[in-house]
Amino acid sequence: MNLTHLDQNDRPNMVDVGDKEVTKRVAVASGIIKMSQEAYDLIASNQAKKGPVLQTAVIAAIQGAKQTSTLIPMCHPLMLTSIKCDIEHLEDLPGFKLIVTAKLSGKTGVEMEALTGVSIGLLTIYDMIKAVDKSMIITDIMLDKKSGGKSGEYVRG
Amino acid sequence: MNLTHLDQNDRPNMVDVGDKEVTKRVAVASGIIKMSQEAYDLIASNQAKKGPVLQTAVIAAIQGAKQTSTLIPMCHPLMLTSIKCDIEHLEDLPGFKLIVTAKLSGKTGVEMEALTGVSIGLLTIYDMIKAVDKSMIITDIMLDKKSGGKSGEYVRG
Amino acid sequence: MNLTHLDQNDRPNMVDVGDKEVTKRVAVASGIIKMSQEAYDLIASNQAKKGPVLQTAVIAAIQGAKQTSTLIPMCHPLMLTSIKCDIEHLEDLPGFKLIVTAKLSGKTGVEMEALTGVSIGLLTIYDMIKAVDKSMIITDIMLDKKSGGKSGEYVRG
Amino acid sequence: MNLTHLDQNDRPNMVDVGDKEVTKRVAVASGIIKMSQEAYDLIASNQAKKGPVLQTAVIAAIQGAKQTSTLIPMCHPLMLTSIKCDIEHLEDLPGFKLIVTAKLSGKTGVEMEALTGVSIGLLTIYDMIKAVDKSMIITDIMLDKKSGGKSGEYVRG
Amino acid sequence: MNLTHLDQNDRPNMVDVGDKEVTKRVAVASGIIKMSQEAYDLIASNQAKKGPVLQTAVIAAIQGAKQTSTLIPMCHPLMLTSIKCDIEHLEDLPGFKLIVTAKLSGKTGVEMEALTGVSIGLLTIYDMIKAVDKSMIITDIMLDKKSGGKSGEYVRG
Amino acid sequence: MNLTHLDQNDRPNMVDVGDKEVTKRVAVASGIIKMSQEAYDLIASNQAKKGPVLQTAVIAAIQGAKQTSTLIPMCHPLMLTSIKCDIEHLEDLPGFKLIVTAKLSGKTGVEMEALTGVSIGLLTIYDMIKAVDKSMIITDIMLDKKSGGKSGEYVRG
């Protein structure tokens, strides 16, 4: 099996998707940020009022997803038709889970867009609360499911 | 304790660092990508030859770190003086650990630059090997240490 | 009536246009910059010779329109097929009116692209003449007309 | 009097600020968006709950201000030390006024950064409410005051 | 004959390609960097081991090609379906030739994307070896061939 | 002699300039575009009137120079204090020579900014006249001189 991003001279390339079919593609990715109780309470109670930490993270996730082909060298430029974010409050951890759903009618999948959105959103939470807790950990960034395209459906087992 | 990125009306702002001193600042962050044995072997053996997956990740990490203030809404634009990447082969996991060190002589810290570099670098590894393994997990993105500035030295315990 | 950019949890999202039809879409927007007689004369007479202030503004408007989805958080990335700029000399104001026409064959409208082009173009005029007049005012940025898409034709009354 | 952005051949250039002093510079700019009562009420009541339209606009204004030197051709890249946004509810208009304050210790002023932030923030409000009201007008974008640098203090009369 | 990027008032515009057909388009461009024997040997022998100068150049070429519509004012945003790079070792010059192939299914050609990729890739080689040789010359950047679109096939004579 | 952009593991890095002195740095670079008589006449006569091809190229060169650290992977972000462009009409070639002068008070040189500006400016000329002549060649992109920094003055022999 070969890595599709490396050509026969082991030079990176942006793989040719010109002959792929245009299909509806959806990818859902998620990730978690773990933090101290103090940091969690500040964000959660603040969100009860106006929630700007989490809303800033959502906006950053959406804008980050749109920058995927600029950031990840071998990614194709895509015209995303939808980006949607959800946040779960993980009181027991404590921390937050960010879920990003990206959609496209196109020739290549949107896994990287969903994963990049998750990463940028979680980094934004880190940035906005780091004065309180520098030891936060971003973890469990993964693809939850994808559909569309030749490789078909993937659902994390 | 207040979140420094929220003003008195709970609106996000980019905090004023105009009166902070210019000091030498260093931040080291790291993160891990876990993968299947097959994916690991393909990257590792390829690196034994020319290693373009990991080198592409290093380049993406450096370029991503430079985009931090574009990606993270409340981050200040900074003139990084150095970005350095190291990669550890974690044969037993299996997977790879990416460590990014960012430096600056400036008025605010470079934690976010190091963390953003780590995130983009690991996403790049994911992208280049995802045809082989979609279940990879990016995890343990954290600040290892920082120095410089009023808050002084931080070393993860 | 609901705001389409806010989901049921009042979190911003990038609305799903995946099921919209691809139609030809055109949007025309305009805006005005008012200035002192001295500033106006410098630009107008200079344009009589080589006109670089207005031409720089036109180029900035075109490049700015292409950055719309990067700048406006909930905007979709689009593949504009045409951007055209016109400038009217408003001798009596005195000032200039910038009109930007954006076109697309796609699933969502190009109003924001036209409006963003107008804004960036007028800011560029401000920048290039601000040494002479800091009191200039950018005003009357509005959508003049649009066509295409489900909501059909709009012409300012 | 000459335009400083045009050299002796009437070609645009980025003026040399190398010999200017580093001083603390502050600029305050503002602008207004006028809208229908229905659009105003939707934003205002929504903000009473969670306010994401205005908070999204604030975030876009901050990120837009950081892109000034990319958007405005003759602007110098700057390392802003602070960006702060305020929004006034203009119930009688009805509409909203966005005020952006930008700060820098540097060799050139930050008027364009404040003005660009205002423009992008107001465009974002337009984008998020345009499904309800396409006839909104962005107006009165102006410099309110500036300080620092050789040209000294400016306060709109 | 008229220049298509200038409208009837000699103002630049982004030409309307809305009515053009979607066809498969391919462009191949190339360019050369000439250098001292010492610089050449360092790159070539290093490439024999791990080759990061040339691989960094390839990655930069790919990422640069994706930025074409941001960099070249009148270029349309495009969704490239493939970018591929080749490097020839010109031992006798000495120097290197970089060849970039860009592909698209779209309404306008990809010559500028291929040429921009070549330019950015060669500049990256310059950057990475300039400590050894400042007198390098980048030369012979040209379109080798293109196909697709109304103007049909072009092959350099 | 080692390449400064490769660390001991042959991984690219952004070299540490933190301990370098802040000095005034100037770099002058140039390049040439050769074209058919027809293409040359169209640009030159047009410039006699309003010159937008060359002025668009100048603006693109300035904006491109500001993007250098985004485009060239190992380049440091810099705060250029000046960018100036000159164009020579080479009637006999025929073609045009673009000269870009970049200035900075900083810790690292601005050669790459001047060279990138030249490249983007010449590509812009190519783009705007390519409907008339696809066989144009961009050539002789080189550093003409630099001053400032530890390595001192360089003047092409």
* DSSP strand tally of chain A: 5
The CATH homologous superfamily of chain A corresponds to Molybdopterin cofactor biosynthesis C (MoaC) domain
Mean of residue pLDDT of chain A? 91
The proportion of residues forming helix of chain A, as a percent range, comes to 25-40%
Low-confidence stretches of chain A: none
Please tally the helical runs of chain A, counting DSSP H or I stretches of 4 or more residues.
4
Structural class of chain A: alpha+beta
Beta-strand percent range of chain A: 25-35%
Provide the number of structural domains of chain A.
Answer: 1
- The end-to-end distance of chain A, rounded to whole angstroms, is 23 Å
Oligomeric organization of the protein chains:
homohexamer
Task: Return the CATH class of chain A.
Answer: Alpha Beta
Order of helices and strands of chain A: EHHHEEHEE
Find the CATH topology of chain A.
Alpha-Beta Plaits
Shape of chain A: elongated
Largest sheet of chain A: 5 strands, antiparallel
Over all CA atoms, what is the radius of gyration of chain A?
A: 17 Å
Please list the strands of the largest sheet of chain A in the order they lie side by side: 2-3-1-4-5
CATH architecture of chain A: 2-Layer Sandwich
Largest interface: A-B, 57 and 57 residues
